[in-house]
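Run log // design_07
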């Protein structure tokens, strides 16, 4: 069976968690891709057997580096695996709902020249589309971990191809990622998706008022995009987070479109990422955002981008622990919300 990604093997799964007598870990319950004649057949079999969610890693940092940011987002998926798989399988979450699908690994990931990096991001876009379109077509909900926010373009394009509709996206992010289409990088995934028809509606939550250029804001406004700023909610307290989430969910439902839930880890205070910040939001507010959007909109995927363990001030081991635990909590917020 020819695959557009590298599947998670039983060996890698076993290396990612530690069983304990008298307990059942999520790692003992998640599903792996079954053998089949084709990738599509394997996904269809997994869906028929009870899988609802497909967990996928993207092991790249081309997009952030092409945007003149720091590398390290290629490590997020490996940081997440032990943090998630060592959690308990119990009455709140079985784990059998999850297909631990595999990893998308760029054909090239060693360029240093900006233009070459942007060309490699274009190639990665096609890999993401090829790997994700059958996942959506099989009726599975992708949970995509790692890589830069450039991968929103591939995800939105794959979903549109499979669902025959543009998507409405909500993005928790201090940056709109709606910059000029100057060559592909992590700062313009949504503007490229808007241009190719994959993005039909766009809202940014937590946009930092001084981390987006006027040209960026004008382009976003011309598209019809909207936002709640970080300063409105967490600094000036002009409205509550709960009111903002309720209004956003209402907007998304009103579009009648399938919904993409996007989250850039650099929105979270002191989270190791390509653009870490001390002036971000608490992790639990980010988890509440994911939970609320998953419960109150017609969401079809979750994308958690830009976590970069190597960017932790205390070193790589601390970064793996922090990013891994963060991602595990955000994934569980999505999974648990979908159980209701």
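design_07 sequence
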């Amino acid at each position: 069976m020819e695959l557009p990604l590298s599947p998670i093997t039983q060996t890698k799964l076993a290396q990612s968690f530690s069983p304990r007598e008298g307990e059942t870990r999520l790692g003992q319950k998640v599903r792996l891709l079954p053998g089949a004649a084709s990738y599509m057949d394997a996904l269809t079999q997994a869906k028929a057997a009870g899988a609802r969610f497909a967990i996928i890693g993207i092991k790249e940092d081309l997009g952030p580096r092409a945007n003149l940011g720091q590398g390290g987002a290629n490590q997020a998926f490996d940081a997440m695996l032990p943090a998630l798989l060592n959690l308990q399988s119990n009455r709140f979450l079985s784990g059998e709902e999850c297909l631990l699908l595999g990893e998308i690994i760029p054909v090239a990931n060693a360029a240093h020249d900006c233009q070459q990096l942007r060309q490699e991001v274009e190639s990665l876009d096609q890999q993401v589309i090829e790997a994700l379109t059958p996942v959506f077509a099989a009726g599975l909900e992708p949970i995509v971990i790692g890589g830069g926010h450039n991968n929103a373009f591939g995800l939105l394009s794959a979903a549109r191809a499979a669902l025959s509709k543009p998507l409405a996206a909500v993005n928790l992010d201090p940056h709109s990622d709606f910059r000029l289409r100057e060559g592909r990088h992590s700062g313009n995934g949504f503007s490229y998706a808007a241009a190719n028809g994959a993005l039909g509606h766009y809202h940014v939550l937590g946009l930092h008022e001084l981390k987006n250029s006027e040209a960026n804001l004008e382009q976003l406004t011309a598209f019809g995009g909207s936002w709640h700023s970080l300063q409105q909610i967490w600094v000036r307290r002009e409205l509550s987070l709960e009111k903002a989430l309720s209004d956003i969910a209402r907007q998304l439902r009103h579009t009648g479109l399938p919904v993409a839930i996007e989250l850039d880890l650099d929105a979270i205070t002191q989270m190791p990422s390509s653009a870490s910040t001390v002036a971000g939001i608490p992790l639990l507010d980010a988890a509440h955002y994911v939970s609320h959007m998953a419960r109150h909109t017609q969401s079809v995927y979750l994308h958690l981008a830009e976590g970069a363990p190597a960017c932790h001030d205390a070193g790589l081991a601390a970064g793996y622990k922090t990013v891994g635990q963060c991602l595990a909590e955000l994934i569980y917020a999505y999974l648990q919300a979908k159980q209701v």
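The first strand starts at residue 6 and ends at 7.
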